Request: fold
Amino acid sequence: MNNPERNKFYITTPIYYVNDKPHIGSAYTTIAADCLARLHRQLGEEVHLLTGTAEHGNKIAQSAEAAGKDPQEFVNEVSAKFSLAWDTLGIAPDDFIRTSEERHVKAVIEFFKKLKESGKVYEDDYEGLYCIGCEAFKKESELVNGLCPLHNKAPEVVKERNWFFKLSDYGAILTEKIEDGELIIAPNSRRNEILSFIKQGLEDIAISRQNAKFAIPLPWDESQTIYVWLDELFNYCSAIGYESNKEQFNKFWPADIHVVGKDIIKFHCIIWPALLLAIGEKIPAKVFANGFLTVDGQKISKSLGNAIDPVELAQKYGSDAVRYFLLREIPFGQDGDVSEEKLKARYNGDLANGLGNLVSRLTNMVEKFLDGDIEQYIASPKDLSEVFNDFSSLNFSEGLNKIWAEIAWANQLIDKSKPWDLYKTDPAKVEELLINLVALLYDIAIKLAPIMPETADKIRKIIEADKIVKAEPLFAKIE
Ligand SMILES: [Zn+2]
Reply:
C-alpha cells in the first residue's frame, strides 16, 4: 500500500536473541507482522516477510557457556527452536536470517567500509556504563538505583578505545524526516517520544567494542569488533541481498515497515535511519512499536515463573486461537495483560460459541432445508475494505471487533427468525435468509484469513463444496 507503483511490501520483525527459547512477547510481534504480510499478499502485492535470530555478542557467549555448549552449536539449536515455534504459530516468513550466516557477515563488512568512507566515523577513548543484558551503554539518568531497570543489574564500567559514529550530526535531518512523514513512527506516543529525545540533543555512539566475544571484526581495525546492535540492525539489508543480490535489494529496499517492540525504538527510529543516511541508502517508510505484555498483571520473568509458552498454547488451543486472542485482546501498540484464563474465555466465548456455533448451525440448516444446494457467492471487495483498512493500519482489535459484531448479529438473526418453525409456513423466506447468511459467512472468512488462516480456509472449503453439509465443530469447547 505504501508503494502502489512498485506493488511490493517489505515487512520485518526484530531478530531475536538466541539466548533463550521464544517467549510470548516475541511471538506477539511476529504474529502481528505475519498477519500484515498475509493481508498484503491477499491484496495482490509481492510481499517479503523477514524474521530471524541475532547470534552475536557476549550475552550469547555467556548463555552458551552456561549451557555447557560450543557457541555455534548453542545458537544452531536455539535458532531452530524459533523457526519451529513460528511454524507452530502459523507464521510463514519468506526468509529467516541468522546473523552468524556468511551472507550477513559479508554484507555487514561492506556496510562498515561504506560507513568509514562517509567521514562520519572517528576514534576516541570512552568510559561508560554497559549493560550486557541490553548490549548497550546506559546513561546515569537511565538507571534506577544504579541498576538497569530492564535487567535489575548494575551495568559494568567499561573504559576502552572505540570507534564512534557522529550521530550528533543527524538530529535536525531526522526531525525533518519524521515531521514530513518520510519516516512514520507509530503509535503517535512513540513518535512524540522519539522527537523529544532528539530535541534533547543526540550524542555520538560507539560502533565498535574491544574484547567482545563472538562478534564480527571491524574491517579496518582488527583489534575491535563491530558493536552487535549495529551488526543486527543491518540484517534488514543483508537478508535481501545488499552485498550479494543488488537486483533483489533494489526491488525491496526500503522496508515498508519494521514491526518492533517499544523498548528498541531508539535503535530503529534514530540510529538506524542515521546510519542509512550516512551510507547513502533510503530510510524505512515506517516503524511500528507494539507494547509490552504482562501475565496476570505481572511483568513476565523467568524468576517469577509466570512466563506462558506460546508454543504450548498453540498446541492446546490451535495456532489460530492464539493469533486471534493476542490481536483481539490488546489494541496493537498499547501495553496489555494476557493469561491462559483470558485466552480460554475468548476461545470458548468468541470462537466456540460465536463463530463456531454460527458455522455449525448454518451448515446444518442449509443441509436440512436446501438439501445442501446453494448458489456460489463471491465476496465483493467493497465489503472488505473497512476491516482491511483497520488491519493495514495495524488496528487489528478494531477490525476483529467489527467481524465479531457481524457474527453476533448473524447468530441473533437465526435465534429471532426461528427457521425451524418458519420453514413450515414460508420455506422461500428461509431460503432467502440462509443464502444471505452464507454470503455473510463467506465474507467473514475472507476478512479473517490474514489473522486466522486455517479457520478461514476451512470455512471457505465448506461453502465452496458442491454440497454443503453440517460442519464438524471448528472449535471444541475446553472446560
Ligand atoms: Zn539492561
The CA atoms of residues 145 and 271 lie 27 Å apart. Residues 131, 133-134, 148, 150-151 surround zinc ion (CB under 6 Å). The two ends are 43 Å apart (CA to CA).
